[in-house]
Each structure stands twice: as C-alpha cells, then as structure tokens.
UniProtKB/TrEMBL annotation:
Occurrences of domain EAL (ranges): 462-721
GGDEF domain location: 319-453
Protein name as catalogued: GGDEF domain-containing protein
Domain of life: Bacteria
Amino acid sequence: MTERVDHRVRDDRSPLDPAVLAGAESFARSWATAVIGSSYVPMTRAEVAQHLQDLTEMLVEALFASPFRTAPGYEIGSRLVDAHFTGTDTLGRTIQLLGDDLLAELGSAGDERLQSRLAALQGALSAGYARALRERTLAEQEAIRAAVLDARDQAEAMLRASEARFRAMFTEAAIGIGIADIDGRILDVNQALQDMLGFSVEEMRQYNVRDLMHPEDAGSVWRLYDQLIAGECDHYRAEKRFHRADGEQVWTHLTLSLVRDDHGEPQYQVAMIEDVTDRHLLQNRLRYQALHDPLTGLPNRALFLERLGRVFNNRGKHLRAGLCYLDLDGFKVINDSLGHDIGDQLLVEVGRRLDHSVSGEGKLVARMGGDEFVILVEGSTGEQDIVDVADRVLTELEAPIRIAGHELSVSASIGIVERQLSGTTSADLMRDADITLYWAKADGKARWALYDPERNAREVARFTLSATMPRALERGEFYVEYQPLVRLEDSTVVGVEALVRWQHPEFGRLAPDRFIELAEETGLIVPLGRWVLRKACEEARRWLVEFGDAAPFVSVNLAVRQSRDPELVRDVKRILDECALPPHHLQLELTESAIMGTADEPLEALRALCDMGVRIAIDDFGTGYSNLAYLKHLPVHELKIAGSFMEGLRAETEEDPVDSQIVATLVQLAHALSLGVTAEGVETPAQAARLLRLGCDTGQGWFFARPGPPEDIDSLLRGDL
C-alpha cells in the first residue's frame, strides 16, 4: 500500500497576536519533544518541529476563532496520522500536553471559555485521529487478509517475502493485533496489544477469546462473534471493554475479521484493537457537563427532560408520575442586595437540601435554571405522595442558611401535578406544573398549590378573552346598554348610565365583571372606554334632538387607567364637539377609591373636565376609604351610594336600622357639600320610598328598569312603559 502525506497547512489564516504566536511556538517545541521517538516518522527532527508548529498555529487559530468550530481539531488529528504519528503513546501525550500546557503557554490558563473550547478541540482531535487511524488500520487489515489468502498461491520465495512484510506490519502496527484459531485459542498478539492489556505473549496464549468477555459487554458483541466463527459474516466492529493485568479497564474499538482457507471455511480470526479510553473518558466528561448544572451539581434541564421522556416511554412500568415545580421566593432581592456570589452559594445550599430531603429511588431533583428547581417522582400512587414531598421540601427550607456572615431565610412556592401517564404527555405535565407554580406564588408564596383543572379552565378562558379582546373591538363585538337614573320625587328619568357588554362568539353575552379587569391589565380599557364614551354621547345627542329639555344626561364609567390618560380631556372635548353634545349632558363616574387616590396630574384633568361643564360622580360611595376633608375640594357633582347599603332597606315590612342610618348619614354629608345623591341597587317600591324619605335625589336599579338597548330608554321618555 502506498500513501502520500501532505504536510502543508493552508496559508489563508488570519495572523496571530505576537504574544500568542510566541506561546504557540513554545508549545510546539514542547510537543515535538514529547512525541519524537514515540512513532516512526519519515521526517527529520527539524521537519517534525516545523510540522507540529504549523498544526499548533492551526489549533490556536481555531481556539480564538469566532465563530468557534471544532473542525480544525478533527483535521489536526487526521494530519497526525497522515504524518505517521501513530505510536502507542503519541495521542495520549498529545492530549495530555494540550490540556496541561497550551493555555498556560498562551497566557490564558484561567479563561473558562478557552478551557471549554480546548476540551471540545481535544475531543475533535481525538475523533479525527481515531478515524484516520481506523481507516488506515482497515486498509492494513485488508492487506493482511489479502496476504493470508494469496500466500498459498505464491512461490516459496514470495511466501517468505509476504511473511516478512506481514511480520513487520504485525510487529510495528500502532494498534493492537491478535490472532486466534476458529476455536478461540489465542495464537499470537503484537507488542501494541501486550502494552495495551499488560499481558505478555505467553500469558495471552493461555487465554481463549471467550475468557476476555467483560460482564458489562453488550449482548450484541458476542452474538456477532458467534455469527463470525460460524462463517455467517466476515467481520464486525464494536465498542468493548477489556480488563488489564493490573485490574484497570481499557475501552477499545474492536474490529474482528475472519480468515478463510482455500475452501472458504473459517480458519483464523484476526482482531484489530484500538485503545479509545481517553476519548471515552472525554466523551463521558463532556456528557456529564452537558447534563448537569455546573453550580449545584444537580441534573440540569436537559437531563430532567430526558428522564421525563423515558418515564413516558416506559408507561408499562410506571402508571403514574408527579412533579413538584419549585421557585424560591424573594431570591432576586437577595441577589440584588447581597450580590450574585451570595446568591450562588444560596442556590448551592438549597440544591443540597433538596437532594438530601428527596433522595431515593424513582425520584430526581434537577435545577431548571435561575432559582427554579423541579422534582420528578416516578411511580406515584396518588396526589398525597407528591404533597408529602412538597411538605418535606418546605420543612427542609425553614432553617436559616448562613452564608458569609449573613443569616438568610428562604422559602419556596411549589406547583404540584400528579396524574396517570396515559392520556397525557410530558409537555402537558410540565405546562400544568408551571401554571400551578404561579398559582402558589399568587396565593401568597411559601406554600404549595395543587393543579386544579377547573381553575385552569377558568384561567384559559381568561387568557382567551384577553387575547381576543383587541380584535373584538375592531369586529364590533362590544355594545352598550343603558339603565335609567330616576328622580325619586316624581319618577322622572333624568339620566342614564351607559354599561358596556361583550357579545363573545364563543362565550356568549359577557357582563363587564368578566372583561373590564382584563381590559385594565392589557391597556385596552383606554380605547374601549373612548369607544363607549363616543357611543353614549351619540345616543345622548339623539335623545337631546328628539326630546329636548326632557332628554337625560348620559353617565359613563371612567376606569382608573383612563383617568390617568394624558389625552383624556382632549378626547372628551373632541367627542363632545363631534357629537354636538352640551358638556352638562355628560357625567363621568369614578369609583371612590380611584378618585380619592388620584394623583395631582389626573386630578387636574378632572378639574379641567369640570370647568368644561362635564359632571363628575363618585361611584360606589361608602365602600372605599373616604377622606372627608379632601372630598370637599374635589371637582365632584354627584355621589352614588353603593348598592350594598340598599339591602337592609329592601324588605317590605321593616328596614335595617344600621343601613338606614348609614344611608342617611351619607345623604346628609353629600347635601352638606352641595352634591346630588343617587342610590344604586333599588329593587322594591318600599326601598324607593325609604330612600326618598332619607333624602336621596335619584335612584337606579331593577325597580325602575333593567339595563337595555337605547330603544327602552326611548319608551321610558315617551311614557310608553
């Protein structure tokens, strides 16, 4: 076999920093010193040094490259084999030297990012080296096999020459080679295999191939072996462990081939054994780093999801499973006030306590990121199993944690999900646990919450409303109903309150209590309130044109967020102007708590509206925190007493003296401030009569009329009802 080795290195690389280049040159010299003599290389010492210098520069360039790629490491490994650096110690010395000296020579020994990159390049170099060596070995193996088969047909001289070539290749091969007969008796092994396993030729000849079985060998390895010696296949490859003479284990890449006689019958078996222990350990180390949290040492999100996936794939073994999704309460405050170092140490201690309190077969504690942890319980028997785990965790976290002179108290909120595995997925389990965690947070923290499908359905419906609300306004799904405000003295309709409704295509007719809070949260309350104001003013203008002086004013609820909208005054003025509605025909209602807590800037807006002629009313008066001294300075025209005070006045026979006294006091207060009084929630004639006796000016409620379309107000104004 003839092969040509190309020692050239591409010359289009970007120049290296002089200091880095000096370090690379120093490392290359150390590299050359370490590997010269470990392999037979057809180069002079100077050529070896230059070749390794080029490879070092290539490696350093890859180390600092952006974006980072491992392909140069793979190429370097291949070039080492191409240049015949294939001695039994060459790769090991190279990998060790790279890990021990390269970053130090480059002046970057403490750079974790470069350490991570170097580890990846080491793995790629090993992979490239192993692949090139394996390809070369396979070629050599084929040559051996051809030599064995062709030997019988050659002349005696050619036979001796062939034997000499085979012996040279067998003896000098960089990987272990062993020959055994078809019964498995070992006939010969080369020096590389002796060094690899620590046995001499004589000791190896005392073994049968089956004596080299490892208790943890995959069953497929020996099934393939049985097929090979039976002549059913000519070769196979496998990863296999061997015991060394000193008791240690060595990981190898085994290629076993069958040599047949002239009649095609199995005669010998030839094993090519490549030591891949370093590569295997490196792969295990990289896998561990990829699947474990570097701070706490707990399994990370990737390993947790892998384990959870296995649980769902083996549903026959476990019929149920549970999750505790845990988040530390107030961790951000600790991080921001005491620093991330204290926060990291706190997370380490929390991880240790969780692992200690939940350890056991079928349980896994993992850190999902930040201050979130998750506990998986396989084979649970019911919700109580997971509740017990959550209680143990909360108890374990009660003891203060001492870190750097600080005594820190930490608590956690936990979302609990436990269910049968059939009919659900791992994604469903994670989603519901996450949702339940936020329920625990919202319910007061330092507690657990159990997943409730009914509550979740309500939350989903709430989210659906929130998500569809913006388009609903565009599609015209909102409409306005009106409820009259009646003067108690003569039952005259003096005003109407505009009440927005939502005709949802899925949930049907929705009252304001289903969506106003969502509108506040999403900010849609401002455009929605503006739309309601315009619709109400348009109707008020129509009533003014049709009924003249008998036309009622229209009262529109104003949300807190609307009152703080800097465009409020301009919007009201523009709508009044466009509708040609006199300002005194519009009343804006704010709740007591909202108007009492109003800051100076929104209060100026209310004063501007009042100066414009718009009426201002306090809705649900008596249920908030009234500052009576402040009340007389507010730009208010009307107080609407909350309906909760009306219940004691509803009975036909007798009234509640407490409610009666409260209403009387509120009426006296309002009249003392020259404010009108409207009673809400009027439902019976007796109630209306008592409110008139107590001095209320107007009433509103089902006794007079339920909220309805504007046509109902038309009928009231015409006296048709």
